[in-house]
Amino acid sequence: xxxxxxxxxxxxxxxxxxxxxxxxxxxxxxxxxxxxxxxxxxxxxxxxxxxxxxxxxxxxxxxxxxxxxxxxxxxxxxxxxxxxxxxxxxxxxxxxxxxxxxxxxxxxxxxxxxxxxxxxxxxxxxxxxxxxxxxxxxxxxxxxxxxxxxxxxxxxxxxxxxxxxxxxxxxxxxxxxxxxxxxx
Length: 184
What we know:
With about 180 residues, the chain is of the alpha/beta class.
């Protein structure tokens, strides 16, 4: 039993040295002062973190990502709190500001955008997105610009949210179903 514990400790040290630290070092080397993150993360190799001109990303300790997560600050600020979890295929794109509170969890295929395309005039229309602490966002949710989600909220699967949602709220969007016979 003692030998197994020693092997597990060595495996954990090995993982930190050869998996976690190189990924964080890579981001530090590539983006310098544009990205602020420490070494206590579980980031999958397929996670993409990018910053553009005049943008900044701050990631607090304990970020955990599954496969194919994209975190982007195009011209804005992206702040991610402690112990935030993104499941597979999540995408977060900040043109102005997106702030995610501590201990928030995002199901697969969640998209968070603080901007819309201005198809009449070209360019983008942006406004801040704030997601509180201890928020649980279900699968296939889209969070649009100008959204404020309070602390301790749950957003049900498949919702498209825009607006203000007070703390301790469950957000569910019901869609009507209409069944028609194929035969007449």
